[in-house]
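so my prof wants the structure for this chain in the tokens format not the other one, which i didnt know existed until like an hour ago. anyway here's the sequence
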Amino acid sequence: MLVHEFITDKTDDVKHKCNADDLNDFVFQLSRGDISKVKSGVIYGPFTVRGTSILTRQVNLFIGKVSRNIRPTDG
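here's what i got, hopefully its the right format
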């Protein structure tokens, strides 16, 4: 799973932080507390996800994040 974060003049830093916190919480749970912060440019895993009625077999999940800052700069 790859999260691609776009930072533009149309996005909000408060929402970026909220999204980052949610991703960190998700990975913290998947890693059973081993990973508390997801860094951009790093792939984490594999995390074993057990099968369910929808996902009929166990899978290994890798998670990564990349950020692209295309906000205009002053000057």
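also thought this was worth mentioning. Residues 8 and 70 are 5 Å apart (CA to CA).
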